[in-house]
Recover the amino acids of this structure.
């Protein structure tokens, strides 16, 4: 059995992420472990002038939006009485890979995330960030629906 000592909650602006936040906060409280909320910015921040798709306004808007997502998660944690948490924004074009790499590199041993996909055979969830994390993570993953 794996003992959870550091909990990572991967979030975005979708409704299932709120459910994941609530679940992760409860897990952190019950297990008495630190929690980090992680959101991934998929917008290329390096060399925006070299790409035709992203400019400084788009990058700033995405950063602001994701900062609000993290602020909302922090507010839920505080209202629940949790104080041992961090909020982190990382970047990566492959969101699932960025989450798994962040968890591995920083010693998180359990990942919590939300998914709006209904329960289906694994092959039917091809393309799902949640399915990719479950498939590639080297630690337990809790998917909240």
């Amino acid at each position: 059995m794996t003992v959870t000592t550091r909990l990572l909650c991967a979030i975005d602006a979708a409704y299932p992420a709120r459910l994941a936040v609530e679940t992760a906060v409860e897990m952190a409280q019950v297990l008495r472990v630190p929690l980090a909320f992680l959101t991934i910015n998929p917008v290329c921040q390096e060399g925006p002038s070299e790409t035709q798709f992203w400019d400084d306004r788009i990058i700033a808007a995405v950063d602001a939006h994701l900062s609000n997502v993290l602020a909302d998660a922090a507010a839920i944690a505080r209202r629940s009485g949790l104080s041992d948490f961090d909020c982190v924004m990382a970047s990566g074009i492959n969101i699932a890979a960025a989450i798994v790499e962040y968890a591995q590199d920083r010693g998180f041993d359990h990942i919590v995330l939300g998914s709006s996909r209904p329960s289906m055979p694994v092959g039917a969830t091809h393309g799902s960030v949640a399915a990719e994390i479950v498939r590639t993570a080297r630690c337990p993953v809790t998917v909240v629906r």
